[in-house]
Automatic annotation (TrEMBL):
Gene3D superfamilies, A to Z: HUPs
UspA domain sequence ranges: 29-165
Protein name: UspA domain-containing protein
Signal sequence bounds: none
């Protein structure tokens, strides 16, 4: 068999597997940026979420800045509750836009130094079938260095990935 035949057989196998065992556990990685939320809202027309458990996940990166006198951490722990409640409100609004009932949805906001690793661990923990993320759609020299978050998921995700790019 040649390469073309192998690719076709793999496609048929994958297609049959998906039809027999439809994906039921989705994770939507949403940054809190307006463009990302708008891009993820397109899922309503592209993906059937009716019989799926949908996890809405946002990871806020903890950043440490050093100065001559001391280190500064952002966000500080006293801000976590307010940020988390705002993030969950945005996630719930996205769920409503997508038509996902709250009974089928889980809303999570994490704080971590490595958002990529946190999401990978979460995907493994919930045994996700599909992770959905939105790129920033950079062009030119900025587009040459694509999103490290999306690149990381493409390389290390334990499940299938759907990457959405913003509309032009």
């Amino acid at each position: 068999m040649n390469n073309k035949t192998n690719v076709i057989l793999f496609y048929l196998y994958q297609n049959k597997r998906i039809q027999e065992d439809p994906m039921k556990n989705y994770v939507l990685c949403a940054s809190l940026e307006e463009d990302s939320i708008k891009t993820l809202a397109k899922l309503k027309r592209d993906l059937d979420l009716t019989d799926a458990k949908v996890h809405f996940v946002t990871v806020i990166e903890i950043q440490v800045y050093n100065s001559e006198l001391s280190a500064y951490v952002y966000p500080v722990e006293s801000q976590y509750a307010e940020i988390e409640s705002s993030a969950v409100a945005i996630q719930k609004n996205l769920a409503k836009t997508l038509g996902v009932p709250e009974a089928q949805a889980t809303f999570k906001c994490f704080f971590d130094h490595s958002p990529e690793a946190k999401v990978k661990d979460y995907l493994e923990k919930v045994n996700a079938d599909l992770v959905v993320t939105a790129t920033r759609g950079r062009h030119g020299i900025a587009g040459f260095f694509s999103s490290s978050f999306t690149d990381f998921l493409c390389k290390y995700s334990p499940c299938d990935i759907l990457v959405l790019r913003p509309s032009k």
